[in-house]
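This entry is passed on directly below:
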Amino acid sequence: MRRFAHAILLCLTVLSAAGLILSDLSVYVSPERVWFLPFFGLLFAPLLLLNFALLLLWAILRRWALLLPLAVVLLNIGFVRTLVQLPPDKKNATLKPELKLLSYNVNLFGIGYVYSDISTYAQVAGFMNHEKFDVACLQEFHTRSEAESERQFAQRLSGLPHRHVHYSATRRGRRFGLATFSRFPIVNRGNIEFPNTANAAIFTDVVLSAGDTLRVYNVHLQSVRLGDRERDLLQDERSWYGGRQDYSRVLRSASGKLRIAFLIRARQVDALSQHMRRSPHAVVVCGDFNDTPISYTYHTMRGNLCDAFTEAGRGLMSTFVSLIPSFRIDYILYSSRFTAATCYCPNLSCSDHYPVVCRLATRQ
């Protein structure tokens, strides 16, 4: 009986290690080549915890099998840093920030949906004025009438006189897109369209000082577009019980939408990373990637850039309102010329996302 139990435990150990390795591979292999790998990426945290638990169990049993979970746990220390951070290094406190950045998916200012008539224009503008940003990138920027227009919103802002707004979709007079507001003059701008979707990216060249231009990318990548039943199923464990007979159908629908989103985002991020490599200026990327740090999307977008959270974040940082304690899908990335002094998410309840705020200094 003991041998049988050990055999089952060993089998579980091998499978959990294999699952974590597949999760790692999802970062490097495009979903267009192996479509199922991103699903293992989504399971990274539970797979890591399972391997750690098996490591402790084999250590208690004093068996050599502990080497397998030990190896895969150690191999993933670097990935863990993209999910959770210890308090920032004290040297960050001595930095003199030069740029204060915002990335915020404003969720259509609360008025883009039929069931909502509550506008958050004033609250978002008030937050931006209070924080005094140098550059602010908004995703899901939305206007529905002349009374709630781009110009009206810009007039609410103080200290951000320059703007670059691009509408990637217009339906029944309602416009949807991206907006970058800047304290610095804008000398060049452009749009990066993605086919067959309302998602897009824009780049804005701002002059920080004479002879010093920064290119700011404002990005909104493909979302999954889950329905209410699918979100309930994935977020509320009670939906798995209580006699519901359609959970398997809803789960298949959700997984199908996830697969399509993985494939579309892979194409979008490949196009964006090529565009960024051709930039003649230092780069900052702000945006809603709609994907976790353990993903091909994040890894490809980051490339040689730095992540504000991994340099100056603290603890678990969720950027999306969810039951999952760490669900980071919004990011601020930047060229190695800069280093982050602070990175945090204010608890602002104007959207289904939280704002990401970062203060950058020139790297010494």
Summary: DSSP finds eleven helices and 14 strands in the chain. The chain has two domains: 2-80, 90-362. The chain has a mean pLDDT of 87. Residues 2-80 form one domain.
